[in-house]
Design a protein that fits this description.
The chain is of the alpha/beta class and about 240 residues long. The chain has helices at about 5-10, 55-65, 90-95, 110-120, 125-140, 155-170, 185-200, 215-220, and strands at about 15-30, 30-40, 45-50, 70-75, 80, 95-100, 175-180, 205-210, 220-225, 230-235. The strands form two sheets. The protein has a six-stranded mixed sheet, sandwiched between helices. Strands 2-1-4-5 form a four-stranded antiparallel sheet. A hairpin with a 2-residue loop joins strand 1 (about 15-30) and strand 2 (about 30-40). The N and C termini lie far apart (about 40 Å). The chain binds adenosine-5'-triphosphate (ATP) and magnesium ion. Adenosine-5'-triphosphate binds next to strand 2 and helix 2.
Length: about 240
């Protein structure tokens, strides 16, 4: 477990910085996606991450989960420099972070229940624990009544809520959502947003990357704007300004 045990232990107990970016630089060949980015996110915050297409939002999220590597600077998660985490400890870090994307990739031949259960099986949870936890998680996302539906039998919003349930299966400390409402109509988008807010109220730190100005303005939480690979505007209870 090592230091990541502390990550769990401290969560919810007092104010602390979950994620710190220090002068982070990331290139893709000649493209500078992040250019000396500094950022601090505290435990329990709900962050709306905004910026034009290509600003670096998805890159920032990918760096947090270790899907991409930085070229310069430092990323600390719970005070741990993630570039120094041993490869064998990375899956442990990943389990503390839930991720939701715009294109919802549920297993098509499995029901809502089985999709969530599968995420827990992969992590090695025992059958009785899975049997107990999945109904609770589906209840949280308001979909227990659809537990036996396959993805093609659900609306886009319902599918995204199953994807969120799946991301919550490991009880993450942090939930990253990259344009989770991008393919949804207004009603479904609002439901997904309300669910993310509820999850945040229950203690999970949430980072929502989005273009949806109307949603950001409704959330009234901290807004971080990225332009040219840097944080240019930080607003408490802010509004989408671009
Ligand atoms: N795998 C890659 N290879 C090369 N360039 C990339 C790659 N991924 C991202 N980029 C470039 O890095 C920059 C930042 O991309 P990123 O996907 O982080 O932007 P974004 O803010 O998420 O945009 P969007 O709002 O369109 O999702 C862009 O210029 C993009 O073209
Ligand atoms: Mg993106």
């Amino acid at each position: 477990m090592g230091a990541f045990g502390a990550f769990v232990y401290y969560s919810g107990h007092y104010d602390y910085i979950v994620i710190k970016f220090e002068n982070v630089t990331k290139h893709y060949n000649k493209t500078k996606a992040l250019d000396g980015l500094d950022l601090e996110i505290h435990h329990g915050e709900f962050i709306s991450l905004v910026g034009m297409s290509g600003a670096g939002k998805s890159t920032l999220l990918k760096l947090i989960i270790g899907e991409e590597k930085i070229d310069g600077g430092k990323i600390l998660i719970d005070d741990i420099d993630i570039s120094r985490v041993k490869k064998t400890d990375l899956p442990y870090l990943r389990r503390k972070i839930g991720v939701v994307f715009q294109d919802i990739k549920l297993l098509p031949k499995r029901t809502a229940f089985e999709n969530v259960a599968f995420a827990m099986e992969v992590c090695g949870h025992r059958k009785d624990k899975i049997g107990k936890d999945v109904p609770k998680i589906l209840d949280l996302v308001g979909l227990m009544h659809k537990k036996d539906n396959f993805p093609h039998q659900m609306s886009g919003g319902e599918k995204q809520r199953v994807a969120i349930a799946r991301a919550l299966a490991h009880r993450p400390v942090l939930l990253l959502a990259d344009e989770p409402t991008g393919n949804l109509d207004e009603v479904n988008a609002n439901e997904v947003l309300d669910l993310l807010l509820k999850i945040n109220q229950l203690g999970t730190t949430v980072i929502l990357a989005t273009h949806a100005a109307d949603l950001v303005n409704k959330i009234k939480k901290r807004v971080i704007t990225i332009e040219n690979g840097k944080v240019t505007i930080e607003q408490e209870k802010g509004k989408y300004k671009l």
